[in-house]
Amino acid sequence: QHWSRAKPTPFLHVTIYRQVSGAGRYPCHTACSIECMTSKASSKSPTGVKHANLARKKIKGPEDVLAKVEALRKAAAGSKGPVRTLSDLGLPHACREVVDKAEVSVLSEIEQSILQIAVSILEGAGFQYAIPNRSKGNQLYVPELDRIVLKSSTSQRAFASTATCRKAAITTRILQLVHELCTKRIHVTKRDLFYTDVKLFEDQGHSDAVLDDVACLLGCTRSSLNVIASEKGVVVGRLTFREDGDVIDCSRMGVGGKAIPPNVDKVTAIQSDAKFILLVEKDAAFMRLAEDRFYNTYPCIIITAKGQPDVATRLFLRKLKLDLKIPVLALVDADPYGLKILAVYMKGSMNMSYDSSNLTTPDIKWLGVRPSDLDRFSIPEQCRLPMTEEDIKTGRKLLEEDFVKANPDWVRELQLMQTSKVKAEIQALSSFGFQYLTHQYLPLKLQEGDWI
Question: Which residues are marked as active site?
Answer without folding.
Answer: 195
